[in-house]
Input
Amino acid sequence: MANKLVDLVYWRNVRRTAIVFTGLVIGLASVFQLSAITVLSHICLGAMCVTFPLRLYYKLLELLRWNPGVHPFQSYLDNDSSLTDKETVMLVEEAVLLIAFAVTEIKRLIFIDSIIDSIKFVVLLYLLTYIGVLTNGLTLIITAVIAIFSIPLLYKKQQVRIRRMVRAVKAFVKKMKNMCLSLYGSLRPSPAPEPAAKPAPAAAAKQKAKSK
Output
């Protein structure tokens, strides 16, 4: 499954990736105007408008003895997509671990186990309130889908140029940081010299005896 997802993201099979990408974007965009149930029903009806006439056509050819009785979608029917007991247990364990980890992290952040992490969480929630006012969840999902299918391919095509730009940005940030540190060091007042320590009374008396 992971290999198939990587193949889709990197457009290794252009036709399959184009179908998946277009279907996801059109389906998510349709949810803006219609409910999810309506969109799903229309997608299934559209698919059956293609498969049903094709199946009837092959059946007619079979009745006319022009077709040896081959099912047009037999390869899809023979494809076993069921999960074994071991795979089911592994998926359930992974889901339970993810849920438990999420609950533990949220509990740790809400009940202030670490002040710094909780402050970061508060800032993130505050920014999400503004994002929620400006846009909605579907817009973010569509943007994420477009980014997932475009950024890896763009990085693969322009890998050398992107790395060069990242190195230039890092060098600029480092230069500005050093400049700010040097400016801060030059403007920072130098510490006042410490006053000379007064000699102890016994040491002063000994020095006077020696001078006499």
Remarks:
- DSSP finds nine helices and no strands in the chain.
- The radius of gyration is 35 Å.
- The CA atoms of residues 31 and 38 lie 9 Å apart.
